[in-house]
Amino acid sequence: MPVTIAIVGSGPAGYYTAEAAQKQWGDDVQVDIFDRMPVPYGLIRTGVAPDHQSIKGVSRRYEKTALSENIRFVGNVAIGTDIDISKLRELYDAVILATGAPDDRRLGLAGEELHNVFGSAAFVGWYNGHPAFAGLDPDLSVRNAVIIGMGNVALDVARILAKSEAEFAGSDIVGHALDRLKASRVERITILGRRGPHAIAMTPKELGELGQLERARPVVDPADLPPEGSDDALEPGQKKSVTLIRQFAEAEADRKKSDIEIVFDFFASPAEIVGNGKVSGVRIERTAFAGGRLVGTGNFYSIPADLVISCIGYRTAPIEGVPFDDRMGRFDNDEGRISPGLYCVGWARRGPTGTIGTNRPDGYAIIGKIAADLGSGELPKAGKPGRPGFDLFAADTGLDIVTFRDWQRIEQAEEAAARDGSPREKFVDIADMIAARD
Ligand code: NAP
To answer: Which of 91, 223, 268, 364 is least surrounded, with the fewest CB atoms within 10 Å of its CB?
Structure first.
């Protein structure tokens, strides 16, 4: 009897875990990878920036895994709606939640609900064609955009807002977003960081791209920079990022005219989003370090803002019947084990940190844990029905499953619809995706 495994979520964490299961058990495992979307790859498809095609290329590796006999993609099935977690656990020896962190962390500030204020999950989902956010309708016919947070998602959003049409060549940004961006009138993008340059969560490669834009340039006030010698205490990657920030500040001296300024505002903690129906500004408190702790100084100032995007991290979506750590915004787990037979991996385990590649060791570690649980008697030895059991359930309940072969037809249709130079034009509507498989 093979070990039967259900993985919930077909993003990087899901596919690396499936790959690890194959390495662990060879032909003696059957893995079903569920996704509520009819299309696979999660964050690779709808999170990674559309102008970062080389990162998206990792899906070819997942495709190799997906096409193995004992791995199956089960698309268009939502856990918690189409099938309960308890039923899934009845059917598979181990259930692994690889559901990522698709919900925005909230700022918890007054004004967050104003028109043209978005979280990055929604805004990134919009320009990446996520069906839940395709109808977001951001107003870009405005001059002042404010981005909250100094991580890589903030950089992605700033870069997408700043690029010219020509700079999107070769990307798979969806048509509705490209059209809106072409007509954008944004002139100033302010990125707010509540700490200083040493504390940015931006990595050098991504930060460097900001200095290469055709019609936009980063602006850093040299007065915000810490003494240069203090960079030596930073780990090498962070030091490179800070060096780039220093270069941006130096370029300030020979300021050339550019259409769009991307202004880094350090030691700036948002206090309130201001507006009347629609956002018009952000009220900010200046921060400072006192005794090694970051504190508000009591000095407030306001900047104009007609578009606000908070890029402050994500939360996993709870699933009924699964213990949840509300403070951390992820499943309550002990190094991936929720209880014997139920596990989590990737962002659903550790929160939204690390690169795509971080999910690989995560996937291998969780499979090691399951193998140990099976060996120690913590988990009954393989014997649950797996695939045939699920197929009976699906037939009884009339689920419309999208298979990997179906996805390949959807993918061909997206490739055929691509504008010149673009790899694909994504379907942004679930019904259209499903129709394209036939
Ligand atoms: P992140 O790296 O955790 O950055 C979040 C930023 O938001 C930090 O600057 C943080 O500042 C700030 N922040 C948090 N709460 C705040 C609040 N209440 N008010 C103001 N600022 C607040 O998260 P992310 O940018 O969403 O990225 C998630 C993960 O995906 C990261 O590991 C990232 O590297 C990765 N990613 C990678 C790429 C790439 O490699 N190309 C692209 C996108 C994302 P504090 O530090 O002060 O808390």
So the answer is: 223
Answer yes or no: pTM beyond 0.85: yes
Residue to mutate (ligand 1; options 53, 103, 312; most atoms within 8 A of CB)? 312
Q: Quote the number of domains for the chain.
A: 2
- Report the C-alpha gap between 400 and 88 in whole angstroms: 17
Q: How many whole angstroms from 107 Cα to the centroid of ligand 1?
A: 13
Residues 44 and 59 in one domain: yes
Model confidence at 164: pLDDT above 60: yes
- The verdict on the CB of residue 353 being under 6 Å from ligand 1 is yes
Q: Which of 104, 194, 287 to mutate to test the pocket of ligand 1 (most atoms within 8 A of CB)?
A: 194
CATH number for the domain that contains residue 143? 3.50.50.60
178-233 pLDDT tens trace: 999 999 999 999 999 999 999 999 999 999 999 999 999 999 999 999 998 999 99
Kindly state whether residues 61 and 180 are assigned to the same domain.
no
Cβ neighbours for 321, distance < 8 A, ≥ 6 positions apart:
84, 85, 86
User: How many CB atoms are located within 10 Å of the residue 164 CB?
Assistant: 15
Domain that holds residue 412: 3-102+316-437
User: Ligand 1, residues 103, 146, 152, 294: which to mutate, most atoms within 8 A of Cβ?
Assistant: 152
| Contact present, 165 and 215 (Cβ < 8 Å) | no
39-54, pLDDT tens digit by residue? 999 999 999 999 999 9
